[in-house]
Write a structure and sequence with these properties.
With about 500 residues, the protein is α+β, with helices and mostly antiparallel strands. The protein has four domains: about 90 residues, Uridine Diphospho-n-acetylenolpyruvylglucosamine Reductase, domain 2, CATH 3.30.43; about 120 residues, Uridine Diphospho-n-acetylenolpyruvylglucosamine Reductase, domain 3 (2-Layer Sandwich), CATH 3.30.465.10; about 110 residues, Alpha-Beta Plaits (2-Layer Sandwich), CATH 3.30.70; about 150 residues, Alpha-Beta Plaits. It contains 16 helices and 20 strands. The strands form five sheets. A seven-stranded antiparallel beta sheet has the order 15-12-14-13-17-18-16, with helices on both faces. Strand 8 and strand 9 form a beta hairpin. The longest helix is centred in the C-terminal third of the chain and has 20 residues. The structure holds flavin-adenine dinucleotide (FAD).
């Protein structure tokens, strides 16, 4: 971008938004160079922080006039490079100042939130009303609603309650043409009339415009909760137990699987005392509004898993023990710090019936590439999280991590799964979409993207394989363009940053 275009934008933005809403020095821009994905980086030209939807509209209008690419950013906890600037000429629109909880309406069972509100803050505010907002990404103490809408975020309790799209009633959207539009009638719990724009926007990873606020669904919080920890001597037994639990109609609020390596890590980190002989531990949270209902669910759970001969079953009902046991799950990722300085986490989804064979194959891939892979994941909805450990200074090992992650993605698609359950495609996985989707599907998605964002400035070149990619044996390859216009965002070294992984 000619410097004069950026200077022009900065001059106009300072007048419109005030100096405190603009970050343009190198130290100010640097924290926006990455999201939580270690491998991808693009330094933005500048960052702007609007305070109102009208200011967002002004920014989009001005970017269109000047031909500037722009990308929305919430908390930057994304794991697929979605919130990185489109190129070093691109600007970041941070929603950090649009962080208000605007209304709680217990009667209607809904709340109105701004995009920059941190997910967990809504639940803190809802607690005194006996209500909760169900989608709870593990990053919920940092991630924002804007990022959750854009990624259709899931979480531990989504197996029972559904993901972000199931809890969003209507969205206020600044279109790529800088119009402010509500997706549908606010507050209605029914599917919107007409075409379902709301569902199109959710999961679109910021490529179809900027999401500014929404009405979201809030639910009565179950009053009785128990957590069962079930240790198994094999991955097969634990995986079969998962399917049996779902088939028995128990409908656990959460159903998570922790593998043997993770058991060792959390025991060491938190002293939770999980059985170290176990090859897999299942964690099931059951919730209800009556003690009899909870007791019935626990008895049914016990009899359902008996045929799979668990090594041990612990059932906790006291809030203290529940909190301690959840620590084993929620702190699992942090506990990997004991065995590795860094890891690469993936999020493919597979059919539940394929859990055992897929995990066994992932272990074989780890062996083949001489890598350590730990697994802790949402077993209830088949959303895997293989964590591939590596030492960031070991370039050769990182290459093996890259190759192994390719194999894992292909494997998961081959068994009937999908590339991503919650982290999104972003830059990280766009070269794999051809594995999962037909050219016709991708073509129609591109047609929608181009119809809604024809300017090609709104977080462009994310999700869909770039034009000029060819699909070869189910795997896409980049045709290097060497430019930031139609090609990949260039990293500071001039290499295409996403090429690390694709
Ligand atoms: C430790 C850890 C645990 C995680 N656990 C989970 C989990 O359990 N479940 C899960 O789903 N994810 C999880 N994630 C991934 C991540 O937290 C989610 O994708 C989250 O929704 C991102 O929110 P964010 O505010 O950080 O968004 P960002 O990372 O800032 O942005 C993510 C995407 O959203 C877009 N975006 C942000 N705001 C807007 C807006 N206002 N309008 C339009 N587009 C916007 C960005 O352009 C980008 O494409 C985890 C991440 C980490 C680091």
């Amino acid at each position: 971008m000619p410097t004069s275009t950026l200077t022009q934008f900065l001059t106009l933005a300072e007048r419109m938004l005030g100096k405190q809403a603009i970050l343009d020095s190198l130290p100010q821009r640097f924290p926006y160079e990455r999201d939580a994905n270690f491998m991808l980086a693009t330094l933005p030209a500048c960052v702007v922080l609007p305070s109102t939807t009208a200011q967002v509209q002004w920014i989009v209008k001005t970017c269109n006039q000047l031909g500037l690419s722009y990308t929305a950013r919430g908390a930057g906890t994304g794991l697929s490079g979605g919130s990185l600037a489109v190129s070093e000429a691109g600007i970041i629109i941070s929603f950090a100042k649009m962080n208000k909880l605007l209304e709680i309406n217990p009667k209607e069972g809904c709340a109105k939130v701004q995009a920059g509100l941190v997910n967990a803050k809504l639940n803190t505010a809802l607690a005194p009303h006996g209500l909760f907002y169900a989608p709870d990404p593990s990053s919920q103490s940092a991630c924002t609603f804007g990022g959750n809408w854009a990624e259709n975020a899931g979480g531990i309790h989504c197996a029972k309650y559904g993901v972000t799209t199931d809890h969003t009633l209507s969205l206020c959207w600044v279109t790529p043409q800088a119009e402010i539009v509500w997706s549908n009638a606010p507050k209605t719990v029914f599917a919107p009339n007409g075409l379902n724009i709301r569902q199109l926007l959710i999961g679109s990873e910021g490529t179809l415009g900027l999401l500014c606020e929404a009405w979201v669904k809030v639910l009565p919080k179950p009053t009785h909760v128990a957590v069962a920890f079930m240790a198994f001597s094999s991955l097969e037994a634990a995986s079969q137990a998962v399917s049996a639990i779902i088939q028995a109609g128990i409908n656990p609020a959460a159903l998570e699987l922790i593998d043997a390596l993770t058991v060792q890590c959390v025991n060491k980190a938190f002293g939770v005392g999980l059985p170290e002989t176990a090859q897999a531990v299942l964690l099931a949270e059951l919730d209800a509004f009556h003690p009899e209902e909870l007791a019935y669910l626990l008895t049914t759970l016990q009899s359902t898993i008996e045929p799979f001969t668990p090594l041990s079953v612990e059932t906790a009902t006291s809030p203290e023990r529940i909190t301690q046991l959840w620590k084993a799950r929620k702190g699992a990722v942090a506990s990997y710090g004991n065995i590795s300085p860094a890891f690469y986490v993936m999020d493919p989804v597979i059919p539940r019936s394929k859990l055992a064979e897929t995990l066994t194959e992932i272990n074989a891939i780890a062996k083949r590439y001489d890598l350590v892979i730990a697994n802790v994941f949402h077993a209830g909805d088949g959303n895997l999280h293989p964590h591939l450990m590596f030492e960031p200074t070991d370039v050769e090992q990182m290459e093996r991590v890259k190759q192994a992650s390719h194999e894992i993605m292909h494997l998961c698609v081959k068994v009937g799964g999908t590339l991503s359950g919650e982290h999104g495609i972003g830059l990280e996985k766009q070269g794999y979409l051809h594995d999962e989707l037909s050219s016709a599907s991708i073509g129609w998605m591109r047609a929608v993207q181009e119809a809604i964002a024809p300017e090609g400035l709104c977080n462009a070149n994310k999700i869909l394989p770039l034009k000029g990619f060819c699909s070869e044996g189910g795997h896409s390859h980049a045709t290097p363009t060497g430019s930031s216009g139609g090609g990949r965002p260039l990293s500071p070294s001039g290499l295409a940053s996403a090429d690390l992984w694709i």
